[in-house]
Amino acid sequence: MNVRRRSSVAALAATAVIGVAAAPAVAADPSPSATTSATSTAASGLYGSGDPQFDGVWRQSLALLAQDSAGVVPSSKAVKWLTDQQCDDGSFAPFRADPAKACDAETMVDTNNTAAAVQALWAVGGHGDVVDDALGWLKSVQNEDGGWGYSPGTPSDANSTSVVIGALTATETDPEGVEKNGKSPYDALLALALPCAEDKGAGAFAFQPDKDGKLLANADATAAGLLGALGKGLVTEAGEKTDAASCADTDEPTREQAAANAAAYLTDALAKDGHLKSALGGSPDQPDYGNTADAVAALAAQGGADRAAGPLAWLKKNAGQWAEESGPAAYAQLIFAAHATGTDPRDFGGADLVEQLNATGPAPQGAKASDKASDESKDEEAKKQEDEKKDDSPFGVWWYVGVCLVFGIGIGFLISNRGKKQQP
Asked: Which of 54, 110, 147, 414 has the fewest Cβ atoms within 10 angstroms?
């Protein structure tokens, strides 16, 4: 899922026209009235200063997920902003300007924002009732083929089905057991995988069949579908290292084989330039930063971090300005790519993505306890190694203490300094 697609799909949903995979890189420029709304919501916990009309819940969910994956405890105000957006039936719309007003038939709820919110709220913890209600709504709008479209009742697509699969697996719900008409989400997803016999797009996923029922390769849908086929969510770890392979047809491809075929397609698409290209109008060579970040996470999940080394290096060198201009969701996508490849998001091409993301919204509460413990353990080990170096000195530890005393430091100060912990 990328920032580019998210905004236009939301805009399409607003006009009840769903069926294309492409979308703008960021939300539309805010109108004067929308700017006021965005400013007021930012003060109450929303990440980003742009108009939230089309992507408020999406970017908030990705921001919270990215913070959690980087060991950051999000602001309670930011979490509350997200929970307040939920409708009584459990669903989420892209943005509700007045959460106190009940959702009605005019509220454009959708599966993507709901599934992203599930993953974020499950990750931060403490909101089981909100998550349960959202999962219940997602199950209630499952299509007969086992998948989901962007809006309830629209045909299943690879992106929507995959993000819901991510919500199910994140909450320890087996997608295989979530069936409609005897079909699981994986059945719907694999039906959108192009066979290897195709001359163009072999192994890719289509967003949806076109009006003639033909499957057309789509890189955005392929990155999403690859993670969906593996049962992975927006935040994923590197998979077992495997050698790159070409597309391989079988009579009944498994989910794993479909994912491997999708990885082969993405690898070929990335081979020339190190990045994917935008499907939007304008320059045909315009880089698609968001989709490239998604592809990095997908390739790493399927075949290990080495599979994504090329596009990851390209992102480190080129994606900084895009993220700055695009906002929280873009920073989150890069953090997801870093997480999937075992890369430090605080040193991503020289940039601290976590600090940059944090700066777009309310200050986080701090670091997670496990990360604090890890940092303290590292500090203890560093202190121990420093002590050993001093003990190993040819002059002995007492010579070291004597020098300190000569300079007026004193043994008490020396011991005190050794006990200090470097703050994370």
From this structure: 414
